[in-house]
Each structure stands twice: as structure tokens, then as C-alpha cells.
Automatic annotation (TrEMBL):
Keyword line: Hydrolase, Manganese, Metal-binding
Protein name: Agmatinase
InterPro entries found in the cross-reference section: Agmatinase-rel, Ureohydrolase, Ureohydrolase_dom_sf
Cofactor(s) listed: Mn(2+)
Amino acid sequence: MKKLYQTWPFNFGAIHKQDFQKAKVVIIPVPYDSTDSMVSMHCGARNGPYAIILSSRFMDELLEDKSQKKLTGLKSTDIFTLDEAVLSKNSPKEAIGGVRQAISDEIVKHNKIPLMLGGEHSITLGAVMALKEKYPDLSILQLDAHTDLMEEHESTFYSHACVMRRIADLDVPIVQVGIRNINTEISDYLKEKKLKHTYFAPDIPPISKILKGLTKNVYLTVDLDVFDSSIMPSVATPEPGGLGWYEVLNLIQGAAKQKNIVGADVMELCPIPGFEAPNFLAAKLVYKIICAII
């Protein structure tokens, strides 16, 4: 019997014929938010990956400028979406270890670029650990409203509020952009370690200065609360102010032109039921990142 319509596959961009062997970017959805005490504010970041993929299936070809590539054909996108990662619920440390193993075994080993959809920010550590094994000079470009540099938060060293502290413990250089809230502990830590690459909104320096703090190989991590909350309210810990859409895009595209982005993530989307605009923003951001790095 002839089909009257074709069902859209549930992957990023609704690509009908994915090909892992040809893919350059492999998307891994990670629905995890076990250390986020603010999940009750909305629905929780565990629902972020589903919302991003769902919204991506309704995007047009997005040919907004000459640099864009069509999302309707695999040859022009070179992306593959894995099934959702299933992580341990025993402890945040075990969950992070699961992310590390999944990205190492399923993506990095095959010379693909991982792009993780979160999920809370704590799991970024697993991706960084996996990529540092391949790229010893790895550095981090973090777009975020918070530094995430606490030593411990709510009785764990592996909270979303501690993720950059654990990455710093690995001697990985970190450049932070869009910060709008720190406490005394973090302020003292920044002074003690003489960290010079934490840039507070609205006083963001030129892109050229930001990029000087990065090595050749870069991991890009975007906490969606970096955006102004007027365009991205669907986050667990919103902060007033923030960066605009084009500010973020210009920085990402500038980094991609001058550095080698070897992995990326978009984190902390907490979908608000019935409010789809932020989900579309997150999906389009993922698309823009893919276009920038391949």
C-alpha cells in the first residue's frame, strides 16, 4: 500500500538517511539533571534534549547567509544523532564517567566531533575528559551566566555548580564569557589562581581578546542562561541581563574560524510547557554551531 505521507524521524533535523560513517558531527542527547536543585522551577533540564530535537524537526533550511549549509540533506550537514545516553543514577561522579566513556567509545574513537545536548552542566566534565585524552592542549570556551567554579555544592564535588572547578583541576585553560553572578568563594578563587579570562557582562571585550586565552583545540560549552532572559527564560538559574543572539553567534563563529573546535555542548534547557520559542532558539543555536565547525 502506498504511503500517503512520510513520518519524520526523531533525530536532529529530521534527517531520513543518517550515515554514521560519513558524519562529521555526532549529536549525543544526555537527559540528566540529578544535581540541579532548581528542577522544580520548570520541568528540569532532563527534558532539554527532547525539546531541542523536537524543535529541530520543524526548522526550515535556514539559508540565512552564504556560510549556511542546508539541513535537508546528509551530504550538506554530515551529522548523526545517537540514542539518548542512559546514565547511572547512583552518583553524579558515575554519571560523568558514563558520559566520558560514551563519548570516548562511540564518538572520539571514530574521529567524530561530539555535540552534546543537555541536560545539566555537570556532564560537560565527562566530555572534556574524553577529549583531553586525544587533545592534550584542550581549552574551554564557556558561555555562561555563572562561573560554575564552586569547590562543592550540596554535598557533591560533581554538581553543575562545580563543573568548571573540576575541569580547572585537570589543568585545562578556561575562558568564561557572559558571567553575571559570583559569590565570595569564587571571587577569592579567581584572585588566588590569578585567572584573567573571566569576562563579565555587559563588559565583554572584543572577540580577538577573548580568543587569545584559548589554545588551538577548543571545547565549546554553552549554558543557555548566558542569553538575556528575555529571549531565553527556560533555564534553571536565570540571571538578569545577558548576551543577545547575535553576540553569541559572532563569538562562536569567530572562534570556529580561528580555532579548531573539537567538541561542543548546549546545556541547561529547562522547557516550559506550552512555551516553545526558547526551545526553537536552542535548536537553532545547535544548528549554527554545526554550521560553524564543519
